[in-house]
Structure formats: structure tokens, C-alpha cells
Amino acid sequence: MASAIYPAFKQALLNGSVDLTTAVVRAVLIDTGTYTYSASHDFYNDLSGVVGTESAALTSKTITNGVFDAADVTFSAVTGNTVEAVVLFVDTGNVATDRLICFLDAGTGLPVQPNGGDVNLVWNSSGIFSL
User: Fold this and answer.
1) Cα dist. 21→34, 48, 102, 114 in Å?
2) For the chain, how many structural domains are there in total?
3) Predicted confidence pLDDT, tens digits, the chain (131 residues)
4) Which of 31, 90, 113, 130 fits 81 for a cystine, CB–CB 3.0-4.6 Å?
């Protein structure tokens, strides 16, 4: 599976119901042996295979020329299955309404086998994703 933006998120952007500059955006580490991307997935409760806990809210978010970017993220003391992907989501405080943004399975450091240490997510220098 190649990295992808969830179609329901694209729809939310187009109808103005999501603003990435003001939304609380977080990341989760994903074991693709348990989760398979589906274009029909729209909310966090569609995910399986989450490894560790969600990240802190992304900081230094920017949108420039259709490219979304943010500061790199560190997941502390991660244990569990091998991580082959990352999913970004808008945190509303309710997994039934936490909108999935994108599925990323390509990038430096993936896959990674958690060993109880930190997992550092370093975004591509050209941004996290573009529209």
C-alpha cells in the first residue's frame, strides 16, 4: 500500500469542516500486520494495530502551497509489534469522531521494531503531505 490521504478527510477539507491550522492533530504508530488501509475508513475507531500511544499534538503546523507540515514527533518508551506505518488524525476527544487524515507507510525509519525506547518520527523535508 502506498501512502494516501483518506477520501473522507479530503471531503471534510472541501466542505470546510476541518481546519488543520487550528485542529488538534496527532499521530499513531501502526502495525500493518493488523491494520490494512481502506479508502472507506474515516474515523479513529476504524483503526486496528495501533502500537503504543498517540503522539502529543503536532506543533509548528504550516500549510504552504498546498503542503501540510509540522514539527517532528517523538513517541516515548514504545513497545509492541513492528511499526510499518503512521496515521495522522484530528483529535476531537472521541474515537467515533476523530477524523483520519492520512496513512503514511513510506519514510525514513520505517519499519521500526519498538524496543522500549523512543521512536522519533522525522517528517520529509518537503512536508508531510500535499494536495
Assistant:
1) 31, 27, 16, 31
2) 1
3) 689 999 999 999 999 999 999 999 999 999 999 999 999 999 999 999 999 999 999 999 999 999 999 999 999 999 999 999 999 999 999 999 999 999 999 877 899 999 999 999 999 999 999 99
4) 31
Question: Does a structural domain hold residue 128?
Answer: no
Q: Does residue 31 lie within any of the structural domains?
A: yes
Single out the residue of 110, 130, 129 nearest to residue 121, CA to CA: 110
What is the rounded CA–CA span in Å between residue 9 and residue 13? 6
Is residue 111 assigned to a domain? yes
What range defines the domain where residue 115 resides? Answer: 4-123
Q: Answer yes or no: pTM beyond 0.90.
A: yes
